[in-house]
Amino acid sequence: MSMAAGTARPRTTPENLSEDVVSAYRRDGFVHVPGVLSRADAARFADAALAVRHTVRNNHDGTIFTQLLQLWRQDATLRELSLHPDLAAIATRLAGIPLRLWHDQLLIKEPHNGAATEFHQDQPYWPHAGSRHALSAWVALVDVPVERGCMTFIPGSQHLDGLRPQDLSDHADMFAVAPELAWEHRVTVPLRAGDCTFHNSRLAHSATPNFTDDPRIAHVVIYVDADLTLAAGPAHPVTDPFGLSVGDSLPDEHFPRFAEMPGHRP
């Protein structure tokens, strides 16, 4: 029986996550973690994602992808994924600090969408002050080979700080603000359903177009420093509804904290 037909695969848990994986993440700014979800769970979450895509608030349909925000507050099944304790515990191991949820987002690339997600950093889009670390878990809910829109990373680029937001539709924009990255090594990471990558919020990354007949379905959980405060800056749909001011902490009921991993504080 082929793996695609459902052969069991080794799972990665917070307990068997190796120190080599943690070291690789801190060196390169990203890491591939296979089998965080079972294929059965990935399929269950993919079905839930497709079922809610036309009903979720904060839904953005674009040529690059469909983006749905804050599913943990709107769908019980996807809440289970966004608050998944294994994902959070692995993120905490990698970051080495206490974390809270910033937001989740479902990213769907339609069949034959023909549009790449061009190189960019995540951090410049977020109004955060005093953040020691932030990272995203990009969870594949279906198989994501290169042809379906998998991720490419520029290892080590997480050292770049203070850049303006980059245009996800412009292939040259990241390299306009950081020309040295044009010549850096790139790593493309195809994923099986249930695999994920974790990447630093300042790591330059991109995703290929979807050339296949099926949608690419990825669920992203964004973890941030539990102690950050709100910075001045552009509006953001996640914080705008709460009337927060510059310098405020994020309210726990809307940005839940995750349990710390004993013995893994820096």
Task: Explain how this protein is built.
The structure is a single chain. The chain is of the alpha+beta class. It has one domain: Jelly Rolls (Sandwich), CATH 2.60.120. Helix content is about 20%, strand content about 25%. A 7-stranded antiparallel β-sheet has the order 1-10-7-12-4-3-2. A 4-stranded antiparallel β-sheet has the order 5-11-8-9. The longest helix has 14 residues. The radius of gyration is 17 Å and the shape is globular. The N terminus and C terminus are likely disordered.
Please give a handful of descriptors for the protein shown:
alpha+beta; seven-stranded antiparallel sheet; 266 residues; disordered N terminus; Jelly Rolls; four-stranded antiparallel sheet; globular
Please tell me how large the radius of gyration is. 17 Å
How many beta-strand segments? 13
What is the makeup of the main sheet?
Answer: 7 strands, antiparallel
Strand content: 15-25%
User: Which stretches are low in confidence, meaning pLDDT under 50 for 5 or more residues running?
Assistant: 1-6, 262-266
Briefly say what this structure is.
This protein is of the alpha+beta class and 266 residues long. The protein is built from 5 helices and 13 strands.
Protein topology:
Blueprint: H1 19-28, E1 30-33, H2 39-52, E2 59-61, E3 66-69, H3 76-82, H4 85-95, E4 99-109, E5 117-120, E6 128-129, E7 134-140, E8 151-153, H5 173-177, E9 187-189, E10 196-200, E11 205-207, E12 216-225, E13 229-230
Antiparallel strand pairs: 1-10, 2-3, 3-4, 4-12, 5-11, 6-13, 7-10, 7-12, 8-9, 8-11
